[in-house]
Amino acid sequence: MAKCQYCGEHAGILRRSCKDCRRLEEQARAYGGQVGFSELLDRLEETGVRPEKIMRFLKANPDGRGSVRDRLTANMTNELLQIMGINERQTPDDVQRIRKITEKPPRSNQGNPD
Ligand SMILES: [Zn+2]
């Protein structure tokens, strides 16, 4: 009997995951990278799957490429960085401007002989 790759429960013949986890998979694929993590959790809960099973699904690492949760979070982070424009390349001018702002000489009292 095949076991579910996510929760380890009975999955059925020729199935890699059980009915519950397949539904979670669908939701994760549909919403992953498009909504925040808490909203994604809401979507997963809407499937009616028990919360503890959702957590087992998220912690599962079926192919050794990182847990479902980590992969979803990585997707979100990438999306977020793009939205925030972090992927944009800075021009040398920008870099210089930033350096001038951050390199203001500190008015320190270091080396005060008295
Ligand atoms: Zn399962």
Decide which structural class fits the backbone: mainly alpha
Largest sheet: none
Percent range for β-strand residues: under 5%
- Please report the total strand number as a whole number: 0
- The coarse overall form would be elongated
Q: In DSSP terms, counting alpha (H) and pi (I) runs of 4 or more, how many helices?
A: 5
Give the overall average pLDDT.
81
The SSE string, one letter per element, is HHHHH
What small-molecule ligands were found? zinc ion
Radius of gyration: 24 Å
Roughly what percent helix? 40-55%
**Stretches where pLDDT falls below 50 for ≥5 residues?**
none
Q: Give the CA-CA distance, first to last residue.
A: 82 Å
What's a quick, concise take on this entry?
This protein is mainly alpha-helical and 114 residues long. The chain is 51% helix and 0% strand.
